[in-house]
Amino acid sequence: MKKLMLALFSIMLLNNAVAQNTYWQQKINYNMNVKMDVENNKYTAETEITYYNNSPDNLHKVYFHLYYNAFQPGSEMDVRQQNLPDPDGRIGTRISKLTDDEIGYQKIIELKQNNKSVKWKVEGTILEVTLNKAIKPGGKATFSLKNEAQIPLQIRRTGRDNKEGVKLSMTQWYPKMAEYDNEGWHINPYIAREFFGVYGKFDVTIDIDSKYTIGGTGILQNPKEIGHGYSATKSKKSRLKWHFVADNVHDFAWGADADYIHDIVKLNDKTDFHFLYKKGNEKRTKNWKVLEEKMVLAFKFMNKNFGEYPYKQFSFVQGGDGGMEYPMSTLILGNGADIKGLVGLAVHESMHSWYYGVLGMNEQKYSWMDEGFTSWAEDLTMNYLFGKEGANPFEKAYEGYYRLQKSGKEEAMSTGADLYNSNYAYGRASYTKGSIFLAQLEYIIGTENMKTTMLNFFDKWKFKHPNPNDFKRVAEKVSGIQLQWYLDKWIYTTQHIDYAIKLVSTADNNTKINIEKLGDIPMPIDITMILKNGKKVKYYIPLRIMRGVKPTTNTIVQKAWPWVYPKYSFTINYNINDIEIIGIDVENGMTDIDKSNNYYPVKEFVFE
Ligand SMILES: [Zn+2]
After folding, report:
1. Is there a shared CATH topology between the 27-198 domain and the 499-600 domain?
2. In this structure, which topology does domain 374-492 adopt according to CATH?
3. Which residue, of 39, 179, 286, 461, has the fewest CB within 10 Å?
4. Which strand (E) or helix (H) includes residue 37?
């Protein structure tokens, strides 16, 4: 008996260990029939949802986001935005002034689980459903949902009649199932930003007045019937049913306008681009034609460097209130006179296909991952499209970081997207410091390792929900360098980097290099020396905590620096008088907040 108990106990332990190491994620299929009433800015929809519970838990409740409810006076979004020290100019007090026919709402008319009505309640932007029957681990449920919605006047991302005159920007527009993972339900109210969703299939039919052209997520299933740039046939019907299917996505967005030009451009044998922008403005049309060419070049570069875009289609849709990423599509403002600005916006938002669309990070929790990684790749792509030879793609990001560091407003990047005390702190932490997280990682692990890390990360985690540790593990496996210290310091604190160099002549042909760690974040040190005879010598000091070194060429690798020691020195066999200049990190790979003490004898020197 005792033996049996022991055996059973060890099996239980083993199961537990397996369960803790097994990744799982929920799955969802939406089958939506939407009937638009554009004249009254309303729609009704009937949706069949099949929800697969791949978790090890019995689910007694499920939750949906009703984002439209945020666009009502007195909503949590309205109040939050008015109480920030630096409110988003696009929102400000606008929600508080919406009239009854300008607000947004989602009304649930009927909700059934496996054909039986269920209890539900709505609080703000969250719909809470108490199930009749729990969904067991490995089980599934079918929900039938009837809803009626009013499309808000465009305030933030979603809505009707945006400032460029686009009729419908249909984003965050349907009751969307909240994500459940090993951290539990993610049911934060919609007060400002960032999303997280369940991967699955969207089968969406939109019944709309035939004068409107639609573009967005998904592939049109009935192009011959539709026309509108898809085929030469022009329908004579007064209404059309656009039937879209998107697989392996976690959201569905679309835009519609009666005056869209619809261009289809081939990227390669696998993927088509769709461009939808308003006609009637010569400058805009010209810019969008340039955009079409630039995006083909951009995606080729992105495919090569960050992993291959896996969908058959991507749509660039004029709409929204700035730029926002959605699976297989983006909604961007399209009137800007500056072509570089338009391309930059389109590159950023479509780059999110990698860091949001395919790698479905929890944007609310790790906004620095999706916004930071996207900004990093955007900077590289824009540098490829427009950059000058030898330009540092991250120069602006680093400058932004130095300003933040001096501002006194810096908050740790581990703060949830909605939880920062100011929009400024959120923006700089998520976009700027998130992008520097990668730029600096390249300094730590080396350029080739960095490239491989990004490609392996994409392959290993596509269509899943990676967290910071998952990324770190990929980088560690590729580089053989331990990186927990870097995450802990850069992500979870507002500590900074500062190193200083001092030279002392010790004998005729010996010079002692003293390096001092003045900041709290330790870093490996690259040192470049130019002698008066033009000779260049490079040194590299890894950190002991890295348990490894980055690959280097023509570089003298010094013994590792245990980071707790504030000082480090080594001696070189050169006469101090023969040294023209010696500097720490002359290529500006790390965010050393005081560069003036990085050089001997003086800072001003151009390294070739
Ligand atoms: Zn972004």
Report:
1. yes
2. Neutral Protease; domain 2 (1.10.390)
3. 39
4. strand 27-37
Ligand 1 centroid – CA 488 distance (Å): 24
Quote the pLDDT of residue 505. Answer: 85
Q: What's the CA-to-centroid distance between 347 and ligand 1, angstroms?
A: 10
> pLDDT at residue 304 above 60?
yes
Contact, 143 vs 115, CB < 8 A?
A: no
Residue 3 has pLDDT above 60, yes or no: no
- For the beta carbon of residue 398, count every other beta carbon within 10 angstroms: 20
Q: Count other C-beta atoms under 10 Å from residue 171's C-beta.
A: 28
How much distance in Å is there from the Cα of 332 to the middle of ligand 1?
A: 11
Give the residue from 606, 368, 580, 608 showing the smallest Cα distance to 471: 368
| CA of residue 75 to ligand 1 center, whole Å | 25
Cα 362 to averaged position of ligand 1 atoms, centre (Å): 13
pLDDT the model gives residue 514: 96
CA pair distance 246, 233, nearest whole angstrom: 24
Quick check: 8 pLDDT over 60? Answer: no
Residue 17 has pLDDT above 50, yes or no: no
Q: Domain extents for the chain?
A: 27-198, 374-492, 499-600
Strand partners, 246: 202
Q: Is the CATH number 2.60.40 carried by domain 27-198?
A: yes
Percentage above 70 pLDDT, the chain: 95
Q: What integer pLDDT is reported at residue 230 of this predicted model?
A: 85
Residues with C-beta atoms within 5 A of ion ligand 1: 371, 374
DSSP H/E element including 375: helix 373-386
CA 348 / ligand 1 centre spacing (Å): 6
Label residue 18 by pLDDT band (50, 70, 90).
very low
Give residue 350 CA to ligand 1 midpoint distance, Å: 9
Give the Å distance between the CA of 324 and the centre of ligand 1: 7
Ligand 1 centroid, distance to 259 Cα (angstroms): 27
The alpha carbon of 378 and the centre of ligand 1 are apart by a number of angstroms equal to 10
| The token pair that represents 445 in the structure block | 């692990």
Ligand 1 centroid to 353 CA: how many Å? 10
Distance 346 CA to ligand 1 centre (A): 10
Q: Which CATH architecture has domain 499-600?
A: Sandwich (2.60)
